[in-house]
Design a protein that fits this description.
Number of domains: 2
Radius of gyration: 29 Å
Number of helices: 20
Number of strands: 7
Oligomer: single chain
Helix content: 55-70%
Structural class: alpha/beta
Order of helices and strands: HHHEHHHHHHHEHHHHHHHEEHEEHEH
Length: 486
């Protein structure tokens, strides 16, 4: 970051990127406030406090955190039933949970998210970004459409001429000037809701400190915490790929918690990483440091409090055009090419489609990712289960038969293990060689116990050989203790 501060060119990129993101945050924050059922000021102040705080404590530079639709969907029922005070308590508890989960290392679970889920996450996100703009394109004056087209043309063509100023910022300014000068009657930012005219202040929720209050807010707080962590870590992973840099996911997890604690203290609605604005910041505007994130929050506050009258006249068409181009740039077009689909395994395509369908259907990225991971686990378990085989390898003497078990032995593969031996036809002594296999769980030990029991019931003895150290540890500790045969 120090290098950026010493470089006027790089600093200019960060400053202008922060300004573009701040402009894009305003209608989003207002929209999410409406979804959550709170005053637009609640969402706008939450976006300011989230962005500024995460720029300091977060683990992924240049990532934007603010009030989000995923969090709004979680808390909306609570706000309807119990009001803003319970919402603030929920956000504070969610922040505390995120700090604890971050310190416990929950971010390491990201290694279990396969690439197909990540591709599905990105594609679903692009679809949601695009569909979220449709309300601003349906049932509006016809002048909106040429304005959107002009803004898109500027965003696409200007970078071919110069990249000194971010194309989205130029498009916003150009379309705004045109609508003001020509006095065009089109929807504007000010039509979305009242903008605040004062700075945020500390908010003390008036709720009884009882177990009943905890019972009410705890489920929502857990939902906000998990959705926020999942969406933030997925976004951080995506930014890692876009920027070819790594980030501290553990710090990002507890950093999101700290940001939510600060947001709750100022009466905000909570939030997490915003993929659309993050893509504007990193992919479209080229920002790479915490400076852009900090300035996005700062500019947001200045724009809505000091320059609210100016921001209010920005036509929604300009911001819609920016978000449409973000959607187009976010979607992984390579993943749906016929050539790609022909080469990809059917399971990978199914995982991607499941993630997209669930996310788009629920408008919740967390649900989509969780379903995608579960589908991936099912395919993985089925595939690995077929890798295990039992082979008759030797008959040293008429009374001995040697079986070799090959492959990974865990719950999915060991369940079929019991059926692969000839209990009645085998000789008096049976040797099971596990030199080419590995025991991974108690299900396998139970299966081996069951095999031994079946042979003993027929008056035959079994010898298990070839166990490596980890497998021997599993077998020695659990054999005879799992109730096989009962």
């Amino acid at each position: 970051m120090r290098e950026t501060l010493r470089s006027p060119r790089r600093l200019r990129t960060e400053v202008l990127a922060g300004l573009v993101v701040a402009l894009a945050l305003i209608p989003e924050a207002i929209s999410f406030s409406i979804i959550a059922g709170v005053d637009p000021r609640v969402g706008l102040f939450a976006s300011f406090t989230m962005a500024v705080t995460i720029s300091i404590v977060g683990g992924r530079p240049a990532m934007i955190s603010a009030a989000t639709g995923a969090v709004a969907l979680v808390i909306a029922p609570l706000v309807r039933e119990h009001g803003i005070d319970y919402l603030v308590v929920t956000v504070l508890l969610a922040g505390a949970l995120q700090v604890v989960l971050g310190l416990l290392g929950v971010a390491r679970l990201m290694r279990f998210v396969p690439r197909s889920v990540m591709v599905g996450f990105v594609n679903a996100l692009a679809i949601l970004i695009f569909t979220s703009q449709l309300p601003y394109l349906i049932g509006v004056p016809w002048l909106v459409y040429p304005l959107v087209a002009v803004a898109i043309a500027v965003i696409v063509l200007l970078p071919r001429v110069t990249t000194v100023v971010p194309a989205p910022l130029v498009a916003i300014v150009l379309v705004t000037v045109a609508t003001v000068v020509l006095a065009l009657r089109v929807p504007r930012v000010g039509d979305q809701g009242a903008l605040p005219d004062s700075l945020p202040s500390l908010f003390v929720p008036h709720v009884p400190l009882t177990l009943e209050t905890l019972r009410i807010v705890a489920p929502y707080a857990l939902g906000v915490a998990l959705v926020g962590i999942l969406e933030s870590l997925m976004t951080a992973k995506l930014v890692d790929e876009v920027t070819d840099t790594s980030s501290n996911k553990t710090r990002e997890t507890w950093g999101q918690g700290v940001a939510n604690l600060v947001t709750g203290a100022f009466g905000g609605m909570g939030g997490c990483a915003m993929i659309g604005q993050t893509m504007i910041n990193t992919k479209v505007s080229g920002a790479r440091t915490r400076i852009s994130t900090f300035l996005a929050g700062t500019f947001l506050l200045i724009l809505v409090v000091v320059l609210g009258d100016v921001v209010a006249v920005i036509p929604m068409a300009a911001l819609v055009a920016v978000m449409i181009m973000v959607s187009v740039g976010t979607f992984d077009w390579h993943s749906i090419r016929p050539s790609t689909l022909r080469r990809m395994p059917l399971s990978a395509t199914a995982i991607m489609v499941a993630t997209v369908v669930v996310t788009v259907a629920t408008h919740n990225l967390a649900y989509g990712v969780l379903v995608g991971v579960v589908v991936a686990m099912v395919f993985f378990a089925r595939r690995v289960a077929h890798f295990t085989e039992v082979v008759d390898v030797a008959h040293p003497d008429p009374d001995t038969r040697v079986y070799a078990v090959r492959g990974a032995l865990f719950f999915a593969s060991s369940n079929d293990l019991v059926t692969q031996f000839d209990y009645s036809g085998d000789p008096q002594h049976v040797v099971i060689d596990l030199s080419d296999s590995q025991i991974y769980d108690s299900s396998t030990v139970a299966a081996l116990d069951s095999i031994e029991l079946k042979y003993r019931q027929r008056g035959k003895d079994v010898e298990i050989v070839g166990l490596n150290e980890p497998s021997r540890a599993w077998h020695t500790r659990l054999t005879g203790q799992l109730g096989a045969g009962h």
